[in-house]
Amino acid sequence: MGTTRRELMGRAALGAALVGLGARWAHAEGEGMEGAGAAPKPITAQGYRPTTTLDGKTLPYRMVDGVKVFHMVAGDVEHEFAPGLLGRCWGYNGIVHGPTIEAVEGDHVRIYVTNKLSAPTTVHWHGLFVPSGMDGVGGLSQRPIEPGETFRYEFTLRQHGTFMYHPHHDEMTQMALGLMGMIVVHPREPKGPLPDRDYVYMLGEWAMDPGVWRPDPNEMKDFNILTLNARAFPGTSPMVAQLGERVRIRIGNLSAMDHHPIHLHGYAFEVIETDGGQVPTSARWPETTVLVPTGSVRVVEFIADNPGDWAIHCHMTHHIMNQMGHGVPNTAGVDVTQFDERLMEHVPEMNEIMEAMMSGDDMDKPPPNGIPMIGGTGPRGYITMGGMFTTLRVRERLPESGDVGWYDAPAETQARPASADELRTDGVDPTSATGELPP
Amino acid sequence: MARWMTAAWALPLLVLASSCRGAPAVRGSAALDASRVMSEVRDRTRADGDTASLATSASSRLAAGPLDVGSAVEIALAFNPTVREGYERLGIARADLVQAGLLANPMLDLGIKRFPAGTEIEGGLVAPVVDLFRMPIRRRIAASRQRAVEAEVARDVVGLVYDVRRAFLVVHEARAIVKLRSDALEAAKASLSLMESLHDAGNTLDQNRTIEAIGAARAALDLEAARSDEAEAVEDLVRLLALEEPPGALEIEGALGTAPGEGLDVADLAARAEGASWDLRALDAAVCAARQDAALVTRDRAMWLRDAGLVGKRDHGESAVGVGPHVGLELPVFDSGRTARARSAAVVRQLLAQRDARRLDVRSAARRLEARVRLLLDRERVLREQYLPERNQLVKDILDRYSMMQVGAFEVLEAKGHELDARREHVQTLAAAWRARLDVEELLAGRLNDGMVSRAGLPMEPEHPHTAGGH
Questions:
Q1: CA distance linking residue A81 with residue A235, whole number of Å
Q2: What number of other Cβ atoms are within 10 A of residue A83's Cβ?
Q3: Is the dihedral of CA B279, B281, B282, B284 positive or negative?
Q4: What is the DSSP letter of A30?
Q5: Which of B445, B441, B439, B359 is nearest to B158 (CA)?
């Protein structure tokens, strides 16, 4: 089959156009979004290894009379899901999703929540054992925080683990627009070895057709932007680890309607924790895929002992597509070039679009706010993935710059075209339809 | 006493009769009358051509190249039997006028009677004296009737001119519709072909292929209907051009004009239409003739003398011939003439009522056409400036979504189908606006046609059950 329209238009022209156009837009989100550093983060005075929320941030605090004081501000955010795809979202402290709240078991925290939205809101501390009046359920635990108001939440962290926060007032709308974040409570007395890398992910799903600028909270089934920390591949940053490091990945899921089986290549891991608490060592078993139901957290851990670039992604295949049109006809097994040809024949406007694309004239058009359904450029061609996809890059030694680049596999470990000699020696007939080997 | 009463009743009619326009000076031939009528028709219809320059048949003119609307009008004026029939009516009216100016011939009576005693010879020369008195009124009646015929012929010729222009327009419209229907069929066939490729690959339901097949069949039926309309439109034009053997494919120039409102003045349309109406002029003349006819009836009843002359007689056995005057008198014993007078008066009133009715029709048509032409011009503008561009933009928007693989080719083709529907509605509206304009012009040229006094529906974009959408 020849070059598909998706490849022709989606990749070459649209992708190039949108990357260019996206660059013209000021990123409304603040500077300092996290990437993976070269070296592990140093252990804090409280004895924990700080987490890394890739493409996000950790919420800062100040100590006031022994209380950790945080300030969260809910408001409008223009968020970039990937270069060329912006969304008029709601977030906390100027980012989507909100920053990760990180504390230690036993800490007394005071969290101020200022509402700069146009609608009332609350914050629910998902999974935390808090007093009932602090639980954030609008109308049940508290009255909603009206626009312009600041509420104070205060409680002691009685447990450790990985949790989430999100509005519990009109949450269908507010979560669909991005209001959510992760909470990590480190154990006061860790029982096992500390991780060298501690990554935090929030899984999310959004409904926003190309050309639309605001996620649709009314959507129930047809989500078309699937995100890791509110970023869709190729907008996701890679995790990195040095060979032999202990890697922990905390994965929360606040998708509206979907669970996500997250699959890591090259490794088996153990689920060490859920948002309900630690999994006893005796109850753990090795997995390569962990299902993270919506409203849940799974924490996995493994030793990075296999160098390379390893994919990690949701294994629901439509969740690794960007802005997929689910109403298109099934053209598998059909020569799709005839579709374009027929349209060019009967719809003259098709020729105008093609000519404009060829000439580059459409670069001056307003950005349609869309990205190719699949991927970005990889070291060995185009990576036909999107959405909930990123990489874990494990190196024997990480460069100080932190830019690990692509893995340069040893030649003997790199898949390649088979030579005629090899085929003959091994008795492989490439013309065979059944793959039978000679006895 | 009764005679005096009759005379007193007749006087107003005579006054009315004398108030009618006088008869035009009698001219030499009916051809002059036709020329005058045609000249006025040309002035009013701006049919500025020269029929004399036409070849001897419409077919030979058509062979010279594509036909423009002006040439079509000239061909119709030269060859359409309606015009010839009109000329003959003018000739008849002219002859009637001349005839009305002639006195009745005198009568010579001769009688011979044989008796045993000899032969009696009796003779006389009698002239219908009453004719001397009737002739001036009779001439005025004939002149009025001639004016009525002239107006009727002018009306019919004006009608012919505008019938040709309308027919020309309808052919343009029909051909434009055929083109759009043809495009729609090609698009529907493309949609079917694409759906069949999906179906053959096992990717879609039988139902979806069937829906596309239905869409293609529907489009084919629509195209056939459009071609039939085109053939009928062409035949209408061929008939008006008086072509006995129409050419294989009538070539006509141009296309639907784009500015049906340009230069159109509908100010004070009702008054202008009333002033221009040939029907009203014909009825005015008919009323005039009827009033004069009523005066004639009255005069006839007021005068008992019918004829006068000389008579001579030689009785048998006499050698001398006796000669003396003769008069013939009508004795109103059984028929006092009252019924005839009442009838004449009723005819006048009937014609006046017809005139009033026609006047109402003309003014109503003027109001209706003014509203219709304004509506259609506005509607055509909205279609052209807003609706069509937005329909086209929708095609582009859906194409953008197709490029992003959000929708399939079927949605694009469906949007294109809707755009073709919109373009068809525009063509039909544009043609309707032109027809309304032609109606206005025709009304101002003096002819009221049936369509001007009846309701006309608006062309509307139809529902478009076109595609299965492919999924």
A1: 6
A2: 19
A3: positive
A4: P
A5: B445
What is the ipTM score, two decimals?
0.80
Q: Kindly give the parts of chain A with pLDDT less than 70.
A: 1-31, 360-367
Other residues' Cβ atoms within 10 Å of the Cβ of residue A219: 17
Are A332 and B203 within 8 A, CB to CB? Answer: yes
**8 Å CB contact between A124 and A74:** no
pLDDT digits (tens, 9 = 90+) for B301-312: 777 888 889 999
Spell out the domains of chain A, with CATH numbers in brackets: 20-319 (2.60.40.420)
Q: Which residues of A touch B (CB under 8 A)?
A: 5-6, 9-10, 14, 209-211, 323-325, 327-335, 338-339, 342-343, 345-347, 349-350, 352-353, 368, 370, 373
Taking a contact as any Cβ pair under 8 Å apart, which residues of chain B between 396 and 455 contact chain A? 396, 399-410, 412-413, 416
CA B189 to chain centre: 44
d(CA A231, CA A95): 12
**pLDDT of A34-63, one tens digit each?**
877 778 999 999 999 999 999 999 999 999
Q: How many residues does chain A have?
A: 439
Contact B201 A345 (CB under 8 A): no
Say whether B399 and A210 touch across the interface (CB within 8 A): no
CA atoms within 13 A on the CB side of A63: 4
Q: A331 and B198 in contact by Cβ < 8 A?
A: yes
Work out the minimum CA distance from B381 to partner chain A, whole angstroms.
23
Q: How far is B428 from chain A (nearest CA, A)?
A: 22
Average pLDDT of chain A is: 90
Per residue in B92-131, pLDDT (tens digit) is: 999 999 999 999 999 999 999 888 878 889 999 998 888 8
Domains and CATH numbers, chain B: 2-453 (1.20.1600.10)
Which of B180, B289, B238 lies closest to B62 in space, CA to CA? B238
Contacts with A12 (C-beta within 8 Å, 6 or more apart), sequence order: none
In order, the DSSP letters of B121-155 are EEEEEEE-HHHHHHHHHHHHHHHHHHHHHHHHHHH
Most A CBs within 10 A among B182, B185, B400, B466, hence the mutation to make, goes to: B400
β-pairing, A101-104 vs A181-186, is parallel
**Backbone phi, psi, residue A153, to 5°:** -110, 140
- Report the distance separating Cα A6 and Cα B406, nearest Å: 11
